[in-house]
Design a protein that fits this description.
heterodimer; A: 293 residues; mainly alpha; MetI-like fold; 12 helices; 1% strand; globular; B: D-Maltodextrin-Binding Protein, domain 2; D-Maltodextrin-Binding Protein, domain 2; 2 domains; 7-stranded mixed sheet; two-stranded antiparallel sheet; 20 helices; 9 strands; ABC transporter substrate-binding protein (chain B); Bact_solute-bd_prot1 (chain B); lipoprotein (chain B); palmitate (chain B); periplasm (chain B)
Chain lengths: 293, 479
């Protein structure tokens, strides 16, 4: 009995924080999502609107476009980060000169605030000032203008995200690789497996929990990207990089359409949960389910 | 002896009078006697005039009153985001907020701001003798509420015109003049109309290429993801084609489309957008990533021969050689106009460009209203205006124009201040709409698609007019 009370007491601060800063705002957003509320409307008060906001969302082309765009961004960014992060982690497992120095340098982007990352990449890519357009033009004849060309802007946001977050993947996988047992690898060598077979049948299955955890973290982060992209492109050119987080931000804050913005947030949260669940089922649960006889 | 006695008596009388009269500085320390140690917090956009407030006027106010001032200078978007959140939630974080004259009507409609006229009347001991709303230019009228007896709700801290800037050195070069006349058949001079502007833009772009110079014909504020581009179009370009108030007709149930009585997608608007987009051919490559700040930087870097530039930047571009490569080479003139627009402006039917500016106000949620009121009066005194005008090319008081420091700066800026004084009446601020940001957010994304070429000018303007009307209906303004 005493141990139960102590347990609850120790948990209490965390539970309070969770309720106040997690559940409270969520319930508020949930309630606002069912209202028609724009503080600069002719009538600035909130009115219950039923499911009207959610019905509107289904036919809202800019919102749906931003959602699909975000999926694309997430796919390319996270896939690149995982692949690149894995190879860098393997590289850092080897005895290379200046390994410690490189590991430190490589981790630095993680310490930079997203808004500063966006500002840095903006300076790098502004024609007439940034080095990237200058050297790409000089060496490869590429006319880099992310304010004009939609595909360039999209790629730039993906590369910026990869630059910022690959170190996280590297560090996670480095820790996972360091803790792998040696026996399965020795056994595979004795059995005559080549490097590709070792990777596919031994390394990858053993690393799967770490990779999945990293993928989930990065997918959830990438789906709510705002500040970096806002600083780099402002969502442009036109809506080429107006990812869903940025789209919601513009609807909620500059446009002060709180009710509709809350509905968008809720739908995005729902989509994120469904997406993660589908990934979980596809990659983990499916193989763990008992096979029907 | 008699003379000596008289002189002594006069000297004594002057001495007695001056010791009996309160010194100028005494008002501030007396008025702030009970407020010493208070800290007031403000938020404003990071611009030359605002930075002057933060760096010079705020410390001077603290010295005079003992009231500390903490000013946050941030980006335009962030500033509005922060202050609206603060006033909406009534957190009382800010005691002074920056208000552009285009958003004050939204704030007044929400009752966000303290009535300064009433506050000064209710607190006679806080009324600074040197502060008088009658000293201000007519720009102060934008910050009065006609529904409340024209009471004042904010103290103007900057006002300037968005005007035409050009490279005087290039325009005055004999070789350039000769080549221009040979190609276009008339003398090179600041353009009177849009055709001439385009000729000049085309000429200097070619001149830059043929002379291996980083020079283009025009600045264009054409960011494809920031509302600055939309602002340039509706505030500075459309009026020169005779389209006013964003093309929304408040008298016709806030109609935007021509079919409903608006002019957002009318022939003048199409001509304006076509001209604006065509200028991109003669603009530096950074233009589609340029907001108002980058436009000034582009001009200061000597990368454009002409352009429409916010006046708050005119002084530093023309005089500050640590930031500008075109010091002493800047000319100012009125923007190019279509026939009839100047007449419209002179008769009060229209305007030729944007009279921009802002003011400081006190949110009703402020916890230090008295200290904030003193601060607003402090920055509204005639004695602090001249240096501020020189630093930020802004003028809010009539007397500032005649100050010797401003006159000297006027010479260095090709008489920008004189232009503002004499022709400022031809420019206008934003229309008195309470739905400013809401309509902007609804139509700007469509406007960006016109810049990228995804939509033709007519398609874009048709969609913008429809989107504006739908938004106004949704907001309840359009019945």
């Amino acid at each position: 009995m005493r141990s139960q009370t102590t347990g609850w007491l120790l948990l209490a601060p965390t539970l309070v924080i969770l309720l106040v800063f997690g559940l409270g705002p969520f319930i508020y957003v949930l309630v606002v999502g069912f209202t028609n509320w724009n503080s600069f409307a002719a009538d600035p008060t909130a009115h219950f609107a039923g499911v009207q906001n959610f019905r509107r969302l289904v036919f809202d082309d800019p919102f749906l476009h931003s959602l699909w765009l975000t999926f694309g961004f997430t796919f390319f960014a996270v896939l690149s980060e995982i692949v690149l992060g894995y190879f860098l982690a393997q590289l850092l497992m080897r005895d290379l000169p200046f390994k410690g120095f490189f590991r430190t340098i490589h981790t630095l982007p993680l310490m930079v605030a997203p808004i500063a990352v966006g500002a840095t990449w903006r300076l790098l890519t502004v024609p007439g000032l940034g080095p990237l357009p200058y050297y790409l033009d000089r060496w490869l004849g590429i006319d880099l203008r992310i304010g004009t060309f939609a595909d360039q802007a999209f790629i730039a946001t993906v590369i910026m995200d990869v630059w910022h977050w690959t170190p996280l993947v590297t560090l996670t996988l480095l820790a996972a690789i360091s803790s792998l047992p040696k026996e399965p690898f020795e056994q595979a060598q004795i059995d005559g497996a080549n490097r590709a077979q070792v990777f596919w049948y031994v390394t990858l299955p053993l690393l799967k929990p770490a990779i999945l955890a990293t993928v989930f973290i990065r997918v959830m982060d990438a789906l709510r990207t705002v500040d970096e992209v806002w600083m780099l492109t402002g969502g442009g050119p036109a809506a080429a990089t107006r990812y869903v987080g940025l789209h919601i931000w513009r609807v909620v804050f500059p446009k002060t359409d709180y009710g509709y913005g809350a509905a968008m947030s809720l739908l995005t949260l729902y989509v994120t949960i469904v997406l993660c669940w589908l990934m979980y089922v596809a990659l983990v649960a499916r193989r763990e389910l008992p096979r029907s006889e | 002896m008699k003379l000596r006695t008289t002189v002594s008596a006069v000297a004594l009388a002057i001495g007695l009078m001056s010791s009996a009269m309160p010194a100028w500085a005494d008002f501030w320390s007396d008025a702030a006697k009970d407020l010493k140690g208070t800290t007031i917090r403000g938020v404003t956009e990071s611009t030359p005039p605002s930075n002057y407030v933060k760096d010079v006027l705020a410390p001077a106010f603290t010295k005079a009153t003992g009231i500390k001032v903490e000013f946050e200078t941030t980006s335009w978007d962030q500033m509005f985001d922060k202050e609206i959140k603060d006033m909406e939630a009534k957190t009382g974080l800010y005691d002074v907020v920056y208000i552009e004259q285009d958003i004050i009507y939204s704030y007044l409609a929400r009752g966000f701001l303290v009535d300064l006229t009433k506050s000064m009347a209710d607190n006679a001991k806080l009324k600074a003798p040197e502060f008088d709303p009658a000293n201000f230019t007519t720009f102060i009228d934008y910050f009065k509420d006609p529904t409340k007896g024209n009471d004042l709700f904010a103290v103007p801290m900057e006002s300037f015109i968005k005007t035409y800037l050009y490279r005087k050195d290039l325009f005055g070069d004999a070789e350039v003049q000769k080549a221009f006349k040979a190609k276009y058949g008339y003398d090179l001079a600041p353009p009177k109309d849009h055709k001439q502007y385009t000729d000049i833009a085309e000429f200097f772009t070619q001149w830059g290429k043929s002379h291996d110079m980083q020079l283009w014909g025009s600045t264009v504020q054409a960011h494809t993801g920031h509302p600055a581009s939309w602002y340039e179009f509706v505030e500075s370009v459309e009026p020169t084609f005779g389209v006013y108030n964003w093309g929304i007709n408040a008298q016709k149930n806030y109609a935007a489309s021509v079919k409903n009585g608006g002019s957002m997608n009318g022939p003048q608007a199409v001509a304006a957008l076509t001209w604006f987009l065509n200028n991109l051919k003669y603009a530096p490559p950074e233009s589609t990533q340029s907001t108002w700040d980058e436009i000034a930087a582009t001009f200061a870097a000597g990368r454009a021969a002409q352009g429409l530039v916010y006046g708050e930047n005119a002084a530093w571009i023309a005089t500050n050689d640590s930031k500008s490569k075109v010091v002493g080479k800047v000319g100012v003139a009125l923007p190019p106009l279509e026939p009839g627009v100047l007449e419209d402006a002179e008769s009060g039917k229209g305007y030729i460009g944007y009279f921009d500016g802002g003011a400081f106000a006190i949110p009703t949620s402020s916890k230090n209203k008295e200290a904030a009121l003193l601060f607003l009066e402090f920055i509204g005194q005639p004695s602090v205006q001249a240096d501020w005008a020189v630093a930020g090319s802004r003028i809010t008081l009539k007397s500032t124009y005649d100050d010797p420091k401003v006159k000297a700066q006027d010479e260095k800026t090709d008489h920008y201040y004189t232009l503002m004084k004499e022709k400022g009446k031809l420019f206008a601020g934003a229309p008195t709409y309470p739905f400013h940001a809401q309509v902007r957010e609804a139509v700007a994304p469509i406007f960006y698609r016109a810049i990228t070429g995804e939509l033709t000018p007519q398609q874009a303007l048709d969609k913008m007019a429809d989107a504006a009307e739908a938004e106004l209906t949704q907001l309840g303004y359009r019945k």
